């Protein structure tokens, strides 16, 4: 069947504007630098008035110049690039669904015309078309000269918060967004191979730069705080097309957006009214609580749990200390897919607590005694989730375990 949708020959000009939903910017995915530039080149040719995707025709010569490919363009090489891109997916969470989506739905090579036809997957419509709020815009020229795929992703994540001048990530969350969970596991290597090169590239080639502040728990880096600076003081006339209605365009509420995103990560959709009612307990308190819940698999009613912790005097102090340690240990043990006996969990936990909190052996032993019941039972629930028992048997055992945990 021939594709009969509208076709448009695109001009990948550096002054073209890329506009993406913030939710798409924050999705977890890993693309190579050439693959990212293809996606952003296409996105930069979407008009604010477009209500649907077109099939975009990109001349091969323009394509290779844009991507910085050297030598005479070969169809076999370009076909391999787009073929691999069509197989790449990203994940986006909507309510309790984690949806895996391809970036492209169609690619065709017109060998006689020396051009490529490319079309976005229809699922991307709400993330790239007719955006009215919660989006980020920047000129294509800011990413086209970048050599690192991590630099492009970090640029977008920081550009989103340029007017707020700072953005803080849990180190684990930042790794996921960059698609670098398995790369450079030691923080020192991650910093030198990912963060520092991006810092140099953005300062030299884009309209923003950044400095890094490391937020530590003991000796371990837990969060990365980016201080964001604008390096070019100019406004794009094209940007005004998106900002005509100033009441409709608002700076992102970093607290509200952060809480909503963390809520989606644990499977709940939070309203502004609910978030506002929690803010009286302190923004850092709410965010820290939700960040710790990312590692939990034992909470059946997340909203009820949050309300209970926030409204119980002293409960959050316990959560912020012991809960943080439990979440960290669960994350560490989850990387080992095998069953570990309790004595080995105890030994490894004490070693990790001692290093992570920079405390002596006796203090580490005592801290383990404080958290061992909750740790063992959460690990049992993890094991149940991976077992081959019937659903009824697992649910019954989970209910018993959850009842015991909640009574602690």
UniProtKB/TrEMBL annotation:
Coiled-coil regions listed: none
Signal peptide feature range: none
Pfam family, any one: Rep3_N
SUPFAM superfamilies xref list: Winged helix' DNA-binding domain (SSF46785)
Domain Initiator Rep protein WH1 positions: 18-159
Entry GO MF terms: DNA-directed DNA polymerase activity
GO terms under biological process: DNA replication initiation
Superkingdom assignment: Bacteria
InterPro entries: Initiator_Rep_WH1 (IPR000525), WH-like_DNA-bd_sf (IPR036388), WH_DNA-bd_sf (IPR036390)
Similarity comment text for this entry: Belongs to the initiator RepB protein family.
Protein's name according to its UniProt entry: Initiator RepB protein
Organism: Domibacillus aminovorans
């Amino acid at each position: 069947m021939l594709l009969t949708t509208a076709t448009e020959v695109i001009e990948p000009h550096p002054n073209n504007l890329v506009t993406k939903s913030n939710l798409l910017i924050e999705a977890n995915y890993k693309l190579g630098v050439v693959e990212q530039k293809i996606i952003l080149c296409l996105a930069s040719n979407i008009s604010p008035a477009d209500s649907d995707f077109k099939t975009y025709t990109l001349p091969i010569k323009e394509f290779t110049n844009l991507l910085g490919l050297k030598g005479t363009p070969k169809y076999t090489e370009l076909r391999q690039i787009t073929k691999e891109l069509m197989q790449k997916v990203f994940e986006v969470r909507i309510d309790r669904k984690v949806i895996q989506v391809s970036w492209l739905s169609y690619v065709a090579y017109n060998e006689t015309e020396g051009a490529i036809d490319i079309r976005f997957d229809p699922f991307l419509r709400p993330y790239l078309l007719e955006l009215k709020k919660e989006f980020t815009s920047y000129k294509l020229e800011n990413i086209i000269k970048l050599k690192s795929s991590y630099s492009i992703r970090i640029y977008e994540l920081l550009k989103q918060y340029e007017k707020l001048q700072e953005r803080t990530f849990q180190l684990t969350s930042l790794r996921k967004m960059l698609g670098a969970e398995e790369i450079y596991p030691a923080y020192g290597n991650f910093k030198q191979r990912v963060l520092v090169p991006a810092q140099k590239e953005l300062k030299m080639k884009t309209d923003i730069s950044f400095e890094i502040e490391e937020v530590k728990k003991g000796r371990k880096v837990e969060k990365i705080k980016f201080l964001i600076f604008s390096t070019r003081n100019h406004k794009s006339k094209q940007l005004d097309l998106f900002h005509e209605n100033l009441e409709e365009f608002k700076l992102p509420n970093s607290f509200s957006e952060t809480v909503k995103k963390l809520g989606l990560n644990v499977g709940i959709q939070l309203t502004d009214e609910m978030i506002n009612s929690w803010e009286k307990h302190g923004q850092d308190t709410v965010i820290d609580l939700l960040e710790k819940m990312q590692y939990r698999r034992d909470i059946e009613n997340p909203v009820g749990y949050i309300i209970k912790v926030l409204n119980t005097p002293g409960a959050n102090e316990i959560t912020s200390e012991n809960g943080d340690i439990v979440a960290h240990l669960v994350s560490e043990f989850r990387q080992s897919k095998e069953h570990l006996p309790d004595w080995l969990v105890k030994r490894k936990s004490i070693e990790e607590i001692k290093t992570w909190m920079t405390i002596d052996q006796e203090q580490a032993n005592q801290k383990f005694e404080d958290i061992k019941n909750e740790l063992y039972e959460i690990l049992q629930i993890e094991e149940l989730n991976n077992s081959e028992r019937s659903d009824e048997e697992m649910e019954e055992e989970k209910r018993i375990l959850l009842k015991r945990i909640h009574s602690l």
